[in-house]
Amino acid sequence: MKFAFKPSASLNSLVLAGLLATVGAGAMAQTPPAPPAGSPPPAGAHGERMGRHDPAKMQAMIAKRQAELKAKLKLTPAQEGAWTSYTAAMQPPAHGPRPTPEQRAEFDKLTTPQRIDKMKEMRTQHMAEMNAAMDKRGEATKAFYAVLSPEQQKTFDAEHKKHGMRGGHREHGGPGPQKG
Predict the structure, then answer these.
(1) 155: in domain
(2) DSSP per residue, 76-134
(3) Is residue 141, in this structure, part of any structural domain at all?
(4) Which of these, 73, 101, 132, 176, is most buried using a 10 Å CB contact count?
């Protein structure tokens, strides 16, 4: 007995479809072309956060929140001085100057253990400055809170819970207030 294989039109179509599918899958698996140089960062988790570090935007956000809080508290003229002191103390600290090329050159001359010690010293100083600034804000908040009426204190407590400790670190990737 002899078997003869006769390709049919449907088999040819099937082979052609498989070949096209293979080529198409390869084309879809290619990486997209890189964006042109100088284009804005892609919209995504990191790209959206970059704008939050714009000092002008941050200052505008702080001013807006302070204006909203002041309106909700319905401050009396006698409380305006305490409000001014409070808002001045709540301003974010200015960033220190960047190292000069001379300072960088001196740092580059250090050995690795010396650099580690220098970084530890700088970190300790920075943490002490941050702690002092937080203490100053805490004392300013307590002083302002003391001049508020009981009803204003309830409003302040509610607003501070919304934007206080939980909301204060959202720009650093921490949890923020949930809207729901």
Answers:
(1) yes
(2) -GGGHHHHHHHHHHTSPPPPPPPPPHHHHHHHHHS-HHHHHHHHHHHHHHHHHHHHHHH
(3) yes
(4) 73
